């Protein structure tokens, strides 16, 4: 027996003489209306859910790399952001012309060579000598024994003896050291002049050199400055500084050689 018929019997039992419409069809119609309302509400809920779901997918697909999806558990495909193209840093352009290697004059022991007019030099296995006669007068002979105890023998060392006049400035001396120099260079006002090396048979761990420069300016005696002189430096075949003798500029400052050519 249906719920509607049972309810109708109960109502008639309470008042068997009651008049009016039969309650059974009225109750059945009410239940049908409730069923239709529930069905309509469910359909609306499904439609809302579908619209919300479509909105979540659209919003998620537009996110950028590094953001988190708005819906928990939703699949997320990041949008690739192109990396900036690195800009190459231009390498510094070398402006200085590489200096040539020092020329080497191979001579016999005691053989005199002319460095410039009236200026001569000679070497033996253990000694370097020079003599200046620029105007016909003999300045005397000056010799240095490279075995002397007052010289540096444990590391590369340079020595210089100079002679200047109104026409030129000459530096002539020797280098001591276990590494043979590829260049010996004089620097005056930053200008480089490569010296000539002088060698003879029997030399060990030393070599002679000379360089001829233009006349140097004279320092003002009233300023009590050191005489103007070039910086002399020895370099190996890779251009690394082996030894240096600082010089003096016209304004009294130190003239220094670069550490690397």
In short:
Helices cover 20% and strands 28% of the residues. It has 261 residues and is α+β, with helices and mostly antiparallel strands.
Main features:
4-stranded antiparallel β-sheet; 2 helices; 261 residues; 6-stranded mixed β-sheet
What does this structure look like?
The protein contains two helices and 16 strands. It starts with a helix and ends in a 6-residue tail after the last strand. Helices cover 20% and strands 28% of the residues. It has helices spanning 3-14, 23-61; strands spanning 104-106, 113-116, 119-124, 127-132, 141-145, 157-158, 162-164, 169-176, 183-188, 191-194, 196-199, 206-213, 231-235, 241-245, 247-248, 254-255. Strands 1, 6, 7, 8, 11 and 12 form a six-stranded mixed β-sheet that branches. A four-stranded antiparallel β-sheet has the order 2-3-4-5, with no helix packed on it. The chain has 261 residues and is of the alpha+beta class. Helix 1 (3-14) crosses helix 2 (23-61). The protein is elongated and about 150 Å long. Mean pLDDT is 75; it is low at 14-19 and 42-95.
Let me know the largest β-sheet: 6 strands, mixed
Percent in helix? 10-25%
Rounded to the nearest angstrom, the radius of gyration is 53 Å
Low-confidence parts: 14-19, 42-95
Structural class: alpha+beta
The separation of the N and C termini measures 116 Å
Q: List how many beta strands DSSP finds.
A: 16
**Beta-strand percentage range:** 25-35%
Order of helices and strands: HHEEEEEEEEEEEEEEEE
Shape, principal axes of CA atoms: elongated
Q: Report the average pLDDT across residues.
A: 75
Number of helices: 2
């Amino acid at each position: 027996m249906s719920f509607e018929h049972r309810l109708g019997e109960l109502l008639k039992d309470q008042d068997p003489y009651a008049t009016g419409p039969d309650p059974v069809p009225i109750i059945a119609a009410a239940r049908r209306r409730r069923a239709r309302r529930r069905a309509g509400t469910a359909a609306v809920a499904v439609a809302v859910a579908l619209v919300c779901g479509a909105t979540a997918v659209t919003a998620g697909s537009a996110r950028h790399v590094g953001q988190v999806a708005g819906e928990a558990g939703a699949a997320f495909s990041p949008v690739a952001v192109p990396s900036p193209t690195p800009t190459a840093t231009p390498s510094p352009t070398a402006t200085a012309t590489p200096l040539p290697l020092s020329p080497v004059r191979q001579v016999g022991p005691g053989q005199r060579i002319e460095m410039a007019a009236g200026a001569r030099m000679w070497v033996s296995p253990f000694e370097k000598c020079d003599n200046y006669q620029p105007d016909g007068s003999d300045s005397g002979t000056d010799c240095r024994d490279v075995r002397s105890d007052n010289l540096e023998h444990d590391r590369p060392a340079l020595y210089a003896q100079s002679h200047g006049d109104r026409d030129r400035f000459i530096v002539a001396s020797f280098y001591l050291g276990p590494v043979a120099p590829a260049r010996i260079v004089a620097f005056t006002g930053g200008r480089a002049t490569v010296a000539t090396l002088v060698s003879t048979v029997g030399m060990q761990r030393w070599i002679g050199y000379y360089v001829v420069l233009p006349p140097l300016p004279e320092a003002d005696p009233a300023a009590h400055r050191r005489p103007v002189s070039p910086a002399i430096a020895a370099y190996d075949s890779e251009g690394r500084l082996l030894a240096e003798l600082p010089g003096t500029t016209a304004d009294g400052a130190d003239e220094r050689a670069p550490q690397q050519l």
